[in-house]
Amino acid sequence: MPALELFELGGRGGRRYSLFSWRARLALAHKGLAFESRPVKITDKAAIAFSGQKRVPILRRGETVVSDSWRIAEFLEQAYPDRPTLFAGPGGQALARFVNHWTDRVLVPAVGPNVAAAIPGCVEPDDAAHIRAGFEKGFGRTLEEMWAGRGAGLERLNATLEPLRSLVRERPFLGGEAPLYADYIVASPFQWARIVCAEPVLEPDDPVAAWFERVLDLHGGFARAEPARAGAA
Q1: Would the N or C end of the chain have less CB density within 10 A of its end CB?
Q2: 174, 180 in Cβ contact below 8 A?
């Protein structure tokens, strides 16, 4: 069987900092599949021209090329049905799709302003300029203004997390007693924050923090093995 290659954003010191990449990485780990990481700079579109589009993550298996973290998860579920399930059936897949939309449209925008100012320090200068421009356009503020408003930003994030907090008080994972792909979707912004920003976005006694620690421990500590950011933003 052809080897699996994951094309993903790479930063300084070998960082794999993309939240979307981490969804694919954890899906691969859940399935017990080895893969080769192919780091790509955000400004290096030529490196992924073979995919016919301009974004990572991209999974390649021989002649098969799959882009977008959600499509990668769907592909893995279909291509490796004998491996642990990511969705636990069609109903679980439909619910995971809702979780994917909620995370992208509600959770990521709540986390983003609290860590954005730290990201340029994790990447090369040309990527840093690209990231700065994208965040400042998207949020309508400079990175410095976002950092200065971090106190209010964390309060907004705290309120956003209340439904998730209530759920993970009741059970170890969103999937119940064991994780499913929905756990990896929701964990991805927190892994992103952990990698790019030295200042935490969760209080240590938050049930969401305890749930995230459980996710970090999964698959032999696969996600925890990626170093957290050290030093001030």
Answers
A1: N
A2: yes
Three-state DSSP at 179 gives coil
- Give the global pTM: 0.96
The pairing of strands 64-67 and 36-40 is unpaired
Domains and CATH numbers, the chain: 4-79 (3.40.30.10), 90-221 (1.20.1050.10)
150: left (phi over 0), alpha (psi -120 to 50) or beta: alpha
Q: Quick count: other Cβ atoms within 10 Å of Cβ 113?
A: 23
Helix (H/G/I), strand (E/B), else coil: 78: helix
CA angle 64, 69, 75 (to 5 degrees): 40
- Return d(Cα 176, Cα 9) in angstroms, integer: 31
Of 56, 88, 89, which is closest to residue 72 (Cα–Cα)? 56
Q: Are 169 and 161 in contact (CB under 8 A)?
A: no
The rounded distance, in Å, linking the Cα atoms of 193 and 198 is 8
Rounded to a whole number of angstroms, the distance between the first and last alpha carbons of the chain is 43
